[in-house]
Amino acid sequence: MFKRIWAIIQKEFIQIVRDRVTLAIICTMPMLQLLLFAYAIHMDVKHIRLVVADQSLDQASRTYLDAMVNSGYFDIVSTVSAPSDVIRTIDGGKALAGIIIPPDFAAHEMKKDARIMFLVDGSDPFSTQSAYNAATIVSQSFSTQLVFNTVNPAGAGATVQSLSGLDTHLRILYNPDLKDLWFIIPGMIAMLLQTQTIALTAAAVVRERETGTIEQILVSPIRPVELMIGKMAPNLLIAMFNMLSILLVGTIGFGVPFQGNILVFIGLALIYVFSGLGLGLLISTVSQNQRQTQQLMMMFSFVGMIVGGFIFPRYSMPLVIRLIGNLFPLTYFIPISRGIFTKGIGAVYLWDYILPLLVYDGVILFVAARLFRQRLD
Amino acid sequence: MHNRFRRIFTIVRKETIQLLRDRRTLIFILGLPMIELFLFAYAVTLSVNHIPTAVVDQSHDSRARDFINALQRSEYFDMKMVVANEQEIIQAIDSGQVKAGLVIPADFSAHIASGDANVLILLDGSDSFSVQSGYSAASAISQTYQLNLITEKVSKMGAGANSASSTLPVDTSFRVLYNPDMNDMIFVLPGIAAIILQVLAVGQSAMTVVRERELGTLEQIMVTPTRPIELMLGKLIPNMVLNLVVTVIILILGVFFFGMPFHGSVWLFFALAILFIISGIGLGLMISSVAKTQRQAQQMSMVLMLFSMLLTGVIYPRAPMPWIAQAIGSLIPLTYFIRISRGIITKGVGISLLWSDVVALIVYGVVVMIIASVSFKRRLD
User: Residues A163, B165: contact at Cβ < 8 Å?
Assistant: First the structure.
């Protein structure tokens, strides 16, 4: 049995090494992607382009606008006079948010009935969220400050906190400075590994079928499971190389601290990588030609990215979507990666995710081998 | 010229027959985008509500309950569990049971009266989305709470009690244009539809030329008088029809099933969608001519899919990205079409505001088709 597996491994290995270009792409791509995506993605959108229609142009309205700009969330890119121009600017995409301050703002502020209209472009999801949240907080604290000033005109050493008697501390665990990279890298490693591993084996069986070499393998005494293991082994090496390279880029290149035990991480990553390779093999076995493989493979990595919790948190998804998410190994590895990498916790906390991954490995190998045999008859 | 059209038509016929014969692939092509649309439409939630939260309430008085209620009522936080101390909260966050924690120390009411009360809100910093939502929600809620306390105290002191200090001096009203209820579906669908279309267009055409090369049937085509650009056009047309069918299906589902409002002109949308599909297929054909094996073509289209997902503005906005990421994003047709799609569907704007993106798509389509033909010719020599 081992001799037969070994023979397949050798064959696969030779095939992989012979195609230098593909090998080079496979080995460097995940690293380059991590580099690029890590730089590119910003979770917290700042400097949102803002258009202003200030019809008061008095001290109070200027103070308000200053508060907006000073928050760092907004950059005033244009100033218009009519409220309709604000909407037109947003329509044209030159600004994502707009503020309309009606006439006599200062006077209304004294009478406590000043109104401000804040408009947000509702077609760009991320920016809308950030703009909405930032504007809420900024205008709320502006109002609070005003109330405070009228109550306490002398400003004798008092603060809003001391007056209200309550001080709220917000503490962000594991990532106190809210650094984007700390958020992104652990999930990104999980995501890139899944995309990569599915693609590595997706062509394995179907290509032999298409080029006809599968017949030659079939007349040999090799059994389906042995063939599957043989096809996975060299790819496992490549995937581990990818894993280590992106881990190095993430930790040393970007300086994201690795809080947990690196050996535990590598061990679990090995289990994870195996499941991705198995998924690729399964796709390869069920598809009749590489065009179908392409479709299925794209769908799996595409859907995995969305439902696996890499971008959007899983607890806010409906139950059906969460169940579908359970079909993707990524779903289990993201909590593992974030847990060990960012939180620094040990395997004891992570059993809920490790066990399904182990089961997944066994099941997928079995199913792939089984379907392979069925497709032969 | 007449012969040229005949040659193109012959290729179109061959490709159509091939497409129709392979039933399973056809079902995949038509079915998978729908599955993707359904999954994404339900899975993508931009405003994170109901963050699972653990509470430590060491006071058990009315003020503490008020504060907890204020958080709960906001619907941003779900009080999932009650624990005894801060360590247990951190443990619960460590193990992933909750994403946030709230600590209210003993004698909360008394401390508020004496002006030195503290609450602590902890957030799981490993889960970016929850942190973003949790952070802004928690600050806004506690600020409101503080403000209520101030006004309460002020009216108690009698100072300015008559001046209706329970209302804020400045009232900011928000209007979210095009999507007044901040409905996630409306945010997401125009972008999702665009990315599904591109994945399909590129994925399908990326396999065509390289497949013929791998199977050896390319030789047969090359001994015919067909020229590279004709071959490319012949392969483009049936794929385009297929993609248009998918576009129609996606739009019908989006509008009638998911209730996505379509504000702009449907005809303009289709005209520009054709343009987008052509540039997508052109990009795929280019990959197909450059790749040596189907495996390489797969790898390349996979990479392209990741780039499209993360760099074109479908999910993460492009504005804060560094120039190099923006430049790479500009090489993907989705970057232009996402603005067109959101512009027409969600904003309801006309072509006058979309000109630059339309021109970019036209230039793009022409350039990739030329590169595909040229690199195809070169690979033959």
Answer: no
Contact B153 A163 (CB under 8 A): yes
Residues on chain B touching A345 (C-beta within 8 angstroms): 94-95
Kindly provide the ipTM of the predicted complex, given to two decimals.
Answer: 0.79
Q: What are phi and psi of B173, to 5 degrees?
A: -100, 140
Is B150 in contact with A160 (Cβ distance < 8 A)? Answer: yes
pTM (2 d.p.):
0.82
Q: From CA B329, how far away is CA B339, in angstroms rounded?
A: 13
Please name the CATH architecture into which domain B51-178 falls. 3-Layer(aba) Sandwich (3.40)
**Preferred mutation among B45, B295, B347, B353 to probe A, highest tally of A CBs within 10 A:** B295
Cα A279 off chain centre by: 21
Asked if A319 reaches chain B (Cβ–Cβ under 8 Å), the answer is no
| Positive/negative CA dihedral, B127, B132, B134, B138 | positive
pLDDT tens-digit map of B206-228: 888 888 888 888 888 878 888 88
For chain A, list the domains and their CATH numbers: 2-41+178-376 (no CATH), 48-164 (3.40.1710.10)
Q: Tokens 């079909």 appear where? A: A327
Which sequence spans correspond to the domains of chain B?
A: 2-44+183-375, 51-178
Compute the C-alpha angle B203/B14/A210, nearest 5°: 55
User: Between residues 351 and 370 of chain A, which touch chain B (CB distance below 8 Å)?
Assistant: none
Nearest chain A residue to B186 by CA distance is A123
Interface contact A40, partner B, CB < 8 A: yes
Q: How big is the A-B interface in CB pairs under 8 Å?
A: 414
Q: Does residue A139 belong to the interface with chain B, where contact is any CB pair within 8 Å?
A: yes
Residue identified by tokens 């060990």 is A340
Using CB atoms, which residue from B139, B180, B315 is nearest to A137?
B139
Task: Judge whether residue B160 has pLDDT over 60.
Answer: no
| Residue A261 near residue A40 (C-beta atoms within 8 A) | no
Look at residue A78 and give its three-state secondary structure: strand
Query: What are A34's two structure tokens?
Result: 């991590």
Task: For chain A, list residues with pLDDT below 50.
Answer: none
Residue B138: pLDDT above 60? yes
Shortest distance, CA B236 to any CA of chain A (angstroms): 16
SS (H, E, C) chain B: CHHHHHHHHHHHHHHHHHHHHCHHHHHHHHHHHHHHHHHHHHHCCCCCCCEEEEEEECCCCHHHHHHHHHHHHCCCEEEEEECCCHHHHHHHHHCCCCCEEEEECCCHHHHHHHCCEEEEEEEECCCHHHHHHHHHHHHHHHHHHHHHHHHHHHHHHCCCHHHCCCCCCEEEEEEEECCCCCCHHHHHHHHHHHHHHHHHHHHHHHHHHHHHHHHCHHHHHHCCCCCHHHHHHHHHHHHHHHHHHHHHHHHHHHHHHCCCCCCCCHHHHHHHHHHHHHHHHHHHHHHHHHCCCHHHHHHHHHHHHHHHHHHCCCCCCCCCCCHHHHHHHHCCHHHHHHHHHHHHHHHCCCHHHCHHHHHHHHHHHHHHHHHHHHHHHHHHC
B158: confidence class by pLDDT, cuts 50, 70, 90: low
**Terminal Cα-to-Cα distance of chain B (whole angstroms):** 26
Helix (H, G, I), strand (E, B) or coil at A328: coil
Closest chain B residue to the Cα of A101, Cα to Cα: B172
Query: Could you tell me the pLDDT band of residue B164, with boundaries at 50, 70 and 90?
Result: very low
pLDDT band, very low/low/confident/very high, at B192 (cuts 50, 70, 90): confident
pLDDT tens string A91-126: 887 888 899 988 888 888 877 778 888 888 877 777
The SS3 of residue A80 is: strand
